[in-house]
Specification:
Largest sheet: none
Shape: globular
Mean pLDDT: 85
Distance between the termini: 43 Å
Order of helices and strands: HHH
Number of strands: 0
Strand content: under 5%
Radius of gyration: 13 Å
Amino acid sequence: MPQASTTARDDQALLVETEERLVARWSAEGVAPDTVRGAVAEAFDRLAGARVRSFLPILVERSVRLRLRGA
């Protein structure tokens, strides 16, 4: 039976993948890469205690999008 949660290494890979995608997208809109990275790190930190980790990239992207649109 497959595990429902991911390991710390999986989380790190998701963080890097999500961060790269969002930096590319928001850089095209004139947002500094460090601003995007900070928003991604903050969103992942808020979700660090989540038991189900499958949707972390989607939730992080949504959080970053809302934050950067409001900035």
